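User: structure tokens for this one?
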Amino acid sequence: MKRKFRKYQDWAVITGGSNGIGFAFADQLAREGLNIVLVARREGPLKEAADTLRKRHGVKAETVALDMSVDGAPEALYEATQGKKVGMLVLSAGVETTGDYTKVDLASHRNLIKLNIQAPAELARLYGEDMSRRGSGGIVFLASLFAYQGVPTVANYSASKAYILSLGEGLNVEFKKRGVDVIVVSPGLTDTNMPAAMPVNFKKMPITLGKPEFVARVGLKSLGRKASVVPGFLNKIYAFENRFIPRMWPTKLFGFLMQRAMTPETRAELVEPRLRRVRS
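Assistant:
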């Protein structure tokens, strides 16, 4: 195990860990010798992912099949991992809704807020206290490029990620004096189940498709060095342009780009938008 990762031993808990960015973090942390607890809703993919980590890296890999949007789920996960020295927490589970804000049903809005905001905030509170008491640990929040401005048609999602960005940056300063590293990783478009399920043709947008492994590598490399990081050069430009131009310009730009990327069929679908979750 590299010296940097010794302070995060022995266990890493990763929500949304059965695929996508969550699994990429699990794979790279297991490579460094950390034991892994993968958390997601579906038991089958979880077990397959855990088996892969054991065979590939020779670490312990356990699973907790749990829907983090359910009331009481953060406490249930915390209780399920008691007795383990959890030195790393990766908060990767998330959900998005695409559509006119008033046509997305209220239950979907509520579910997004629970999974994207409430669950990460509560888990950081629960595990953060243990890490602070020990004087070591690491917490990785997953936000989004959309956290840096409002984005029409995914307004609730972008707002939830703005909360995560703000929370993580605040905790970076608050926890640092206790020996706990906190970082917010804000990926752009990434090759995962979430964008694949969206009614948007991202090929029509001036953005590049990143790999989950790259996002995880950049995030772990920056942990302990930065409060937040945006993987990818073009993504960095999009994220920080509103520091130099009026804030509403990027909001209008992304609104235009999202609308342009939708075919007539997908525009019609916005009348009956569906909830889309990272399938993990």
